Structures are given as C-alpha cells and as structure tokens.
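May I ask for a single protein's sequence together with how it folds?
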Amino acid sequence: MFAMRNVHGVKSLRGPTKTPLLQLEDIEWETSLFNEKTGTTLTAKLKVPRLRKGAIPTKLPNAPSYLSTTATTRESPDVRRKRKIEAEIQAAIAKRNEDDMNYQRQNSFSNLDELESRLSFPDSYWNKYTMLQDTHPLTMLQSDDSGLTCLDKCVRVACALVNMCPSVVPFD
C-alpha cells in the first residue's frame, strides 16, 4: 500500500493507509527539462513529490464521504431504458386490471332486473319476453302479440354453478 506524505495539494497523512489515495502514476517524483541548445533532457528528483497536472485524489483523508464517493450519480442509458420499459409495463398491467374490473362491474348482474337494466335494446325490440323457467340455462324469448316466439331474438343466460356468476350468451 501507499501512504503519501508531503505531497503538494494533499495534506499529509499520519501512518500508512489501507487504501491508496492516488494511483502511482498520478504522483511526480522527478521533474525534467529539455535544453534546446544542447538537445539534452535534464532530470532531477523532487524533494517533495507533487501531483501531476489534472490528477484528482479518489479518497480524501478527514473529508466527508460524499466528497470521496466513486459512484456515478447519473444512470447509464441502458439502465434508464430498462427502468422506463419496466415502468410502462407495470402501468399497462395496472390499467388492464382496472379496465377488466370496470368491464366486469358494468357487464355482470345477479338477478333478472339487473339483466334487464343492462340490456340496451330499444323498447320496441324487447318489449315482451318470455322466460322459460324449466330449461337450464335460463332462456328468454321475444314474443309478438299473437303469442308466437321468434328464435332470432333470444337471450340465453348461462349460470356457472361453481361460482354462481351468470353471463349473457347471445343465441342466433
């Protein structure tokens, strides 16, 4: 591990640290100068090492944790896309469930009076009907004034005995 002491730009630490504050390549231990007249490079060791230009410590000693965090605050485009798709799917499922509940509420009935109120036929179409009580499922036939039944205007009410939820089945 690497403990920095007397590096310009960072306060000195007391004792070795368990995590390196900087990468070794971010610290300048020597400096160099190019002599144009002679074409040589002069290098000299620094008394006090210093940070390279643009180097930023990843861990700051005795500083709040929010200054030393390495986590990005911005989510990646793939994560954001997946999150938005998941939210849209959840919203669609919730809307489908709500629409299904509304449909069931509007189209279910528990007795014949509710059935008659839910039928949206004009009065002239379904003005007289006959219920055949002896048949299962319940069959309602339209009859004219002469007493003859017309099978093309018939509604059969099928009732599931398991859950006692009636449903209207048009009969042609």
The chain has two helices and six strands. Residues 1-71 form one domain.
